[in-house]
TrEMBL record:
Keywords recorded for this protein, A-Z: DNA-binding, Transcription, Transcription regulation
UniProt xrefs under Gene3D superfamilies: Tetracycline Repressor, domain 2
Official protein name in the record: TetR/AcrR family transcriptional regulator
The organism of origin for this protein: Streptomyces zaomyceticus
Keyword Transcription regulation: yes
Entry superkingdom: Bacteria
Length: 219
């Protein structure tokens, strides 16, 4: 407040603006907190119950918001599922990159990243959401775009480094990356549905044999 004519108090416009900014910031934080809560609950339920077993209203109720709030953030159950798939794909990409970063040798970085991608299928969220439901619930191009943005991008970067270092025979990297990515996606889908106790070990062995075919002998 500040004094006006005759000593009367008038509002401090700057203070009012700051109060409005704080209120707007609080509302934005609340909206983001609600969105994160819906994402977390949606991720848990999609992993446990599968896409068709989840009801958006029940997700909203579980986090203490209205169904309208859930629709405001995600438009539909499909919208929530897309956001969850993107989040899980992003986590998968980080997992692949972290595994590769533990190795210093470029060839071992490739092998470690590929193994981490295959092993990630043991995670219930990755298995059910990304490998089982996403390819059927989402359009193929949309699912491929999400895969391209996460783990497939790391594969391309690793192959580019190996070609530049002369470890892999000089060749166009994009078709090679797509061939390997497709093979690993198929293997991961098979692993997600397999009950064989040694399925992962057998798949990793097969992967090593496949990768050895692109490595230069002199390397």
């Amino acid at each position: 407040m500040r004094n006006g004519k005759g000593g009367a108090a008038v509002p401090d416009e700057a203070a009012g603006d700051r109060a409005e900014q704080r209120e707007a910031g609080n509302r934005a934080e609340q909206r983001e907190a609600t969105r994160r809560a819906l994402l977390a609950e949606g991720r848990r339920r999609f992993a446990e119950d599968g896409y068709h077993g989840v009801v958006l209203a029940e997700v909203a109720r579980a986090v203490g918001v209205t169904k309208g709030a859930a629709y405001h953030h995600f438009d539909s159950k499909a919208g929530l599922f897309r956001a969850v798939v993107a989040e899980v794909q992003g986590d998968l990409g980080d997992r692949v990159a972290a595994a590769a970063d533990e190795e210093t040798d470029p060839w071992e970085r490739l092998r470690a990243g590929c193994r981490a991608f295959l092993a990630a299928g043991e995670d219930p969220a990755v298995r059910r959401i990304v490998l089982v439901d996403a390819p059927t619930v989402l359009e193929w191009e949309e699912w491929r775009a999400l895969d391209e943005e996460s783990s497939a991008r790391h594969l391309t970067e690793a192959l580019e480094s190996l070609v530049e270092a002369g470890v892999v025979t000089a060749q166009p990297v994009e078709p090679l990356a797509r061939l390997l990515s497709g093979a690993m996606n198929e293997a991961a889908l098979w692993l997600a549905r397999s009950d064989e106790p040694e399925a992962l070990e057998r798949t990793v062995d097969a992967l090593d044999g496949l990768l050895s075919g692109i490595r230069r002998e002199q390397a």
